[in-house]
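Task: sequence design from structure.
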């Protein structure tokens, strides 16, 4: 069936749900039930293999022959294994294993094992939690054995909870005194702490870090699986989600239920797609939702929506077209509102959605054809405005750049009709689209009138439908054309705030925000820079603020969770809740807590902490910042200058020479950017490599050369995505070029952890010659935990890490890459969540030229903790390293940033392929 035919007629559902979901969706997925494990690369001791690791043996629980194993176990091993064996036999309903286990426990004299005999009998003899509770309660009566009572009281509490009796985690914690089962009580402690934190009016960073640290055994690379995991923590994933940790909620849900098929496991696992979507991993969420027990029509809607948010438009189109829009509409969804189009779910609404997906997928012609066929569609929005006019307006939206005059005619017609009928939302959107049509037609004054008029159209409840990003961006772009000299700082600040408070997603901003083609954040930044060309300080700080916000915002599927991904998690959790079918699809779902929303504001960049002011910079130095806008680059340079200020005294004119800092910027085209990156990289060594790019820097060089003081430093804002040799480009003919020092954060505040009272040289896998410096070699994998000694002094980082692709060929997330140190390893994911707040004063590592994404995440982690970072290559040999470290450790006082910089400047000034990255502009 051709697209026009499809748009006119409902297509019968020709394929089963199973067949539809069997299509490849953007990537090769692991088998259902193992997807999360494959995505996060978690080798698990208990969750995956079903093994319990004892000091002298590893026991595969599911395949254990109890008759052969039990007699050779020590008493301590029996205490550890008993609950695992009971849990397995209870879940699998293996009568032979149950009988054998009961016989083994029956003959034990130890109080703990006698208690487990009572627990096993209760679980094996009844599926009713109340009957089980009665049996366990009867077993407690009259006993004074503390270990015996502890086991029974704990399992009595679990059965009461399973029977519907509310038992707070704090109450469960009171009875958690299980011999040989420390992991169980630690997990209960995690549930109790999460419950407490969820009740706090103000969520704190310390509280979040504490929960993550308590949960480390269950979240880390080698997770522990306590017996009766799911029974203890069935409510924990939702509570973890509610405080802003949806990825951790997904991980716990999967690990609790791995390999389980019971009703409780199915209930817990059913929430996985909800948690994954809230974390921004829409591809995984769309795959997992197919195994949900919810109505098929709701699952299909979720799949299409999440594939759309993932940017997999072709896959979303395929799901719609394979069965036609009829299967999307049933009585269960007709009463719900489509959050994309704002009118009730209908066949026409799904066709309109399909048209916009075609447009997002890049097929403007087919999208226009589809919208032409929908200009007579029936139906109306939730506020009673005809859907057919929205279809016309969508046609105008996608034609804005290619045919602005036609877009203007369509939008104007809709605007007049909506004004006559009093349809506020339709009038507002048509006025904004008409404003953009006039902008692209060059009628800038008329476009300003449109954008201004739109501001006063919506009233009351209709105000919720304001698309302020589109309207205000159109106003800024138009003002730049008609009043190029007027600085619109308030307008720019409002737009920047809008982009920070909501995750940017092309589909959301195009469909929900009525964004015109190409008006993405880079479009805004370019317009802002044009507007601020007479205020370069303002433009620089705008880009710094936006750049800082991107450190906490991740593309779909890239969110690492924890505190690093907290802002992204909270934002997506709020957005996912707006889909009207969520409560029906996930009956147990809750919203994100107000305390988490408030806390998320702390993760937005504060202008006061980002702003770079001239009086904070060192007069003798040069400061370079580079920013990426699509394939172009913008380079800002702050440099010393002297201004003669005329002062008239007693009719005589004097000149007061004031030292200040000038700022200039250079815009590199895509071609110039590619040329500089390929031929003039910071770590390149070919003679004359920068000659082809020097002409691009001529104007900038002339502006700053005469004002730069010899002996000053070039301080470069660290950006591994654009790592060029500014020394050769700005000072090509100087025999002794200024030395480059990099910095990560634009802040000038000294970090409290950048001063180490103790000077220690720590090695790991490889060591560099250190002269007479005392050296301590430590366990690499455990050196950064809160529960171990914090790394201090200088740390030599291992130079090997695992491949960027899995054995199946898929890419590993950067935060899940392992740094390798013999048999030890550590992931950035674990370092972010579980590491001590203190950090080494200096981290030395070998250059990773082909690992830009890993490099940035690694450097950011240490820089934000206050560590200086020294990047070296093979030229940093034994002789040089010995001199450097001897000089550094020979300086009086603590190991400070100033001391590190001084040793670097005195000993490594001419060494190529060596880079010092300070955490801030000033040490």
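Answer:
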């Amino acid at each position: 069936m051709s697209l026009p035919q499809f748009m006119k007629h409902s297509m019968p559902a020709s394929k089963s749900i199973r067949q539809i979901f069997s299509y490849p969706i953007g990537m090769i997925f692991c088998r259902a039930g193992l997807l999360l494990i494959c995505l996060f690369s978690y080798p698990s001791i208990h969750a995956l293999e079903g093994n319990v690791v004892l000091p002298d043996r590893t026991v595969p629980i599911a395949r254990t022959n109890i008759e052969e194993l039990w007699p050779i176990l020590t008493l301590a091993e029996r205490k550890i294994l008993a609950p695992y064996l009971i849990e397995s036999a209870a879940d699998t309903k293996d009568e032979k294993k149950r009988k054998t286990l009961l016989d083994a426990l029956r003959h034990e004299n130890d109080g703990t094992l006698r208690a487990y005999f009572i627990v096993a009998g209760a679980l094996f003899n009844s599926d009713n939690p109340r009957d089980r509770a009665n049996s366990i309660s009867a077993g407690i009566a009259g006993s004074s054995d503390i270990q015996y009572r502890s086991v029974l009281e704990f399992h009595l509490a679990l059965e009461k909870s399973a029977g519907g009796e509310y038992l707070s985690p704090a109450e469960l914690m009171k009875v958690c005194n299980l011999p040989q089962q420390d992991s169980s009580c630690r997990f209960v402690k995690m549930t109790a702490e999460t419950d407490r934190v969820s009740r706090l009016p103000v969520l704190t960073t310390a509280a979040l870090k504490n929960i993550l640290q308590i949960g480390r055994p269950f979240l880390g690379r080698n997770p522990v699986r306590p017996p009766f995991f799911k029974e203890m923590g069935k409510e924990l994933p939702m509570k973890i989600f509610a405080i802003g940790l949806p990825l951790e909620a997904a991980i716990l849900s999967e690990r609790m239920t791995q390999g389980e098929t019971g009703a409780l496991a199915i209930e817990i696992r059913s929430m996985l797609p909800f948690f994954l979507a809230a974390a921004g991993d829409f591809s995984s969420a769309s795959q997992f939702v197919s195994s949900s027990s919810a109505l098929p029509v709701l699952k299909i809607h979720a799949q299409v929506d999440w594939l759309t948010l993932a940017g997999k438009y072709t896959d979303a189109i395929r799901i719609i077209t394979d069965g036609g829009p009829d299967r999307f509409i049933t009585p269960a969804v007709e009463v719900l509102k489509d959050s994309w189009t704002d009118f009730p779910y209908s066949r026409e609404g799904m066709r309109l959605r399909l048209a916009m997906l075609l447009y997002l997928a890049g097929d403007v012609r087919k999208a226009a054809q589809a919208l032409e066929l929908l200009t007579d569609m029936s139906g109306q929005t939730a506020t009673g405005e005809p859907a057919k006019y929205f279809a016309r307006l969508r046609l105008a939206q996608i034609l804005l750049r290619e045919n602005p005059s036609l877009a203007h005619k369509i939008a104007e017609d809709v605007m007049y009709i909506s004004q006559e009928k009093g349809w506020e939302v339709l009038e507002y959107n048509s006025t904004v689209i008409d404003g953009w049509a006039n902008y692209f037609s060059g009628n800038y004054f008329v476009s300003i009138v449109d954008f201004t008029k739109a501001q006063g159209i919506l009233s009351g409840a209709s105000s919720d439908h304001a698309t302020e990003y589109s309207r205000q961006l159109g106003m800024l772009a138009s003002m730049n054309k008609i009043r190029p000299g007027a600085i619109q700082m308030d307008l720019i600040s409002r737009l920047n705030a809008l982009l920070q408070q909501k995750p940017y997603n092309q589909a959301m901003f195009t469909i929900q925000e009525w964004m015109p083609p190409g008006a993405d954040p880079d479009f805004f930044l370019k317009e802002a820079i044009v507007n601020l060309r007479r205020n370069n300080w303002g433009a620089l700080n705008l880009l710094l603020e936006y750049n800082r916000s991107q450190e906490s915002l991740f593309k779909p599927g890239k969110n690492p969770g924890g505190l690093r991904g907290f802002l992204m998690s909270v934002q997506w959790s709020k957005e996912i809740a707006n889909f009207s079918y969520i409560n029906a699809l996930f009956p147990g779902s809750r919203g994100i807590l107000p305390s988490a929303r408030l806390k998320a504001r702390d993760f937005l960049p504060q202008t006061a902490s980002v702003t770079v002011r001239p009086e904070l910079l060192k007069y003798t130095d040069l400061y370079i910042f580079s920013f990426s806008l699509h394939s172009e680059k913008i380079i800002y340079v702050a440099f010393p200058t002297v201004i003669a200020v005329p002062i008239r005294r007693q009719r005589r004119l004097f000149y007061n020479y004031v030292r200040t800092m000038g700022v200039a910027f250079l815009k590199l085209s895509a071609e110039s950017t590619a040329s500089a990156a390929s031929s003039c990289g910071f770590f390149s060594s070919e003679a004359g490599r920068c000659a082809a790019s020097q002409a691009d820097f001529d104007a900038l060089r002339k502006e700053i050369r005469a004002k730069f003081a010899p002996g000053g430093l070039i301080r470069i804002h660290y950006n591994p995505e654009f790592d060029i040799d500014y020394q050769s480009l700005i000072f090509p003919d100087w025999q002794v070029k200024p030395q480059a020092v990099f910095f990560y954060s634009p802040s000038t505040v000294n970090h409290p952890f950048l001063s180490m009272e103790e000077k220690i040289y720590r090695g790991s896998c490889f060591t560099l010659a250190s002269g007479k410096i005392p050296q301590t070699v430590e366990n690499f994998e455990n050196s950064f935990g809160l529960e171990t000694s914090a790394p201090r002094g200088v740390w030599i980082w291992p130079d090997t890490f695992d491949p960027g692709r899995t054995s199946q060929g898929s890419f590993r997330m950067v935060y899940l890459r392992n740094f390798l140190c013999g048999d030890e390893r550590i992931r950035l994911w674990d370092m972010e969540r579980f590491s001590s707040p203190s950090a080494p004063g200096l981290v030395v590592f070998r250059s990773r030229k082909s690992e830009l994404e890993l490099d940035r995440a690694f450097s950011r982690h240490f820089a934000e903790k206050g560590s200086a970072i020294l990047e070296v290559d093979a030229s940093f040999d034994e002789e040089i390293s010995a001199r450097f470290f001897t000089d550094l450790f020979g300086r009086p006082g603590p190991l400070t940033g100033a001391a590190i910089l001084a040793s670097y400047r005195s000993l490594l000034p001419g060494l190529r392929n060596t880079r010092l990255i300070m955490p801030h502009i000033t040490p």
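The first helix runs from residue 3 to 8.
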